[in-house]
Amino acid sequence: EEVAEAALRKRYPEMWISRSSGISPEIGEYERCSTVAANAYVQPLVDRYMEKLSGGMRKIGFGGRFSIMLSTGGFTGVESVRRAPIRVVESGPAGGALAAAQVARSCGKDRAIGFDMGGTTAKICLIREGEPDTANSFEVSRTSRFQKGSGLPILVPSVDLVEIGAGGGSIAHVNRMGLAQVGPGSAGSNPGPACYGLGGTEPTVTDANLLLGYLNPDYFLGGEMRLSVQEAEKALDGLARELSVSTENAAWGVHELVSEQMASAAKVHIAEKGADPRRFSLIATGGAGPAHACHMARKLHVRRVVFPPSVGVASTVGLLMARSRSDAVRAYVSDVDEIDWKRVHRLLGEMEVQALSEIMAPEEKGKGWERAITADMRYRGQSDTVAVPLPNEVGGLPGEEAGMKKFFEDAYLLKFGRKMEGVPVEVAAWRLTLMGPKVDNVFGGLFFMEERETFSKGVRRMFDDVRREFVEGEVYDRYALPVGDLFSGPAVIEERESTIVIPGDAVFVKDKSGNIRATLEG
């Protein structure tokens, strides 16, 4: 492949070339082919975008370097992205995962479920030991939402999350079986939900939330945009007639259905990771997420929900906490008892040189960089592997093979709940990750109190999912809420970018960092 690439570049210097062993040097011919084909497909598009972005930055007088977010939650330089743009496919959702992880750490929670819901999609990831789970491969363009193998495999590292077509703009309709369905189609932002008054006519999740009393038509985007209750009613009326229910019942059905879809996706993802959601807290972010978080948490048997400051734009804040990062991999299959440590050291050296060349500028050298080594391990005869973190000093010390087996068995037991006695263990690949200095908690600078006469904005009619009926619920101004006071639901907490819905069986408090912490009954 290297010889062919060199010959092609010499003869056709302007041609876009993607080499599989340069993009994903791993075992698995089909997966590697799929990855390099996807990279070749997006490369011209991304390059034009990078050129346009770079040119625009120069025009406004920017003379420094700017970085691009990776799917892993790290960032890298423009040239690295131009060479392997497939590594940024999941970069947007990674920002939300980083934000949720930072909030979890600041709250002293080592296990959390990151839940980010915007206008078109919802993303769910597990956070353990203060960091979002990562995977060495993922799928794109799945034909079946929960069926592994129904999409195109991409062999590049990424934050391990599940993404479903459920957002504030998701359209509700009656399917061919006569049942209500929400998504995956979305009204987007233009024309958007019917209540935007921009020409949209189909009922969406946002329209339903408005009719349920969760959204304030006069305070959407902090009052910059007024929502039309009449247009929302008109859109939901059509759905209600098809289902032979009242408009309000149709609105609740849309809210319930989309929450159930997200909870179901979360259950599958959490089960696949070998985790018990009852031991986790939920970190809710996104413009639409806080309106559904408590309802979804109850379905997962999660009792504690946290809403960080600036909850509606938390994914953007997450980007500010990213670290410079590069991941490298080399395939080397061997039984643990027969590892050639000289070869391993050579491979680790190659990977470190590659990582340094991709992300480290000369002025950054030696400033708190971290190195992490991982081995893809499995029992002999298996095809799937488990990523096993190893100490940085790994390298053939006496008895180290037994230590590697122990690391693997612990990781295997955590994921599958059992281990296999008497079966030889082998390594399939070695990985090295280089990360830049850690970034301070950006959320700390977002919390502020506004001096107002009262934190209460009165009461309004809203649907309580505990009593399953409309009630008079309290409305609070998030920015003016006092720190440390305990409040109870049903209630909504309004802020500029989002609205938090608190059910009737929950209590909540605003902590000193500005987080809203809700606790559900049970």
Write down the Rg: 25 Å
* Global morphology: globular
Query: How far apart lie the N and C ends?
Result: 59 Å
The portion of residues forming beta strands comes to 25-35%
- Total helices: the number is 12
Q: What is the helix fraction of residues, given as a range?
A: 25-40%
According to DSSP, the number of beta strands is 25
Question: Can you characterise this structure?
Answer:
This protein is α+β, with helices and mostly antiparallel strands and 522 residues long. Among the domains are: 65 residues, no CATH class; 109 residues, no CATH class. Helices cover 32% and strands 26% of the residues. The chain has twelve helices and 25 strands. Strands 3, 4, 5, 10, 13, 14, 21, 24 and 25 form a nine-stranded mixed β-sheet that branches. It has a six-stranded mixed β-sheet with strand order 1-2-15-18-16-17. The longest helix is centred in the first third of the chain and has 31 residues.
Write a concise keyword list for the protein shown above.
522 residues; alpha+beta; six-stranded mixed sheet; 12 helices; 26% strand
Question: Which helices and strands, and how do they pair?
Answer:
Layout: H1 2-11, H2 20-23, H3 29-59, E1 68-69, E2 74-76, H4 78-83, H5 91-106, E3 111-117, E4 122-128, E5 131-132, E6 134-135, E7 138-140, E8 152-154, E9 158-159, E10 161-164, E11 170-174, E12 180-186, H6 205-211, H7 229-243, H8 247-272, E13 281-285, H9 289-299, E14 304-307, H10 314-319, E15 323-335, H11 341-359, E16 370-379, E17 386-390, H12 400-416, E18 425-435, E19 456-464, E20 469-477, E21 486-488, E22 491-494, E23 499-502, E24 506-510, E25 516-520
Parallel strand pairs: 2-15, 3-13, 13-14, 20-22
Antiparallel strand pairs: 1-2, 3-4, 4-5, 4-10, 6-9, 7-8, 11-12, 14-25, 15-18, 16-17, 16-18, 19-20, 21-24, 22-23, 24-25
Helix pairs in contact: 6-7, 6-8, 7-8, 8-9
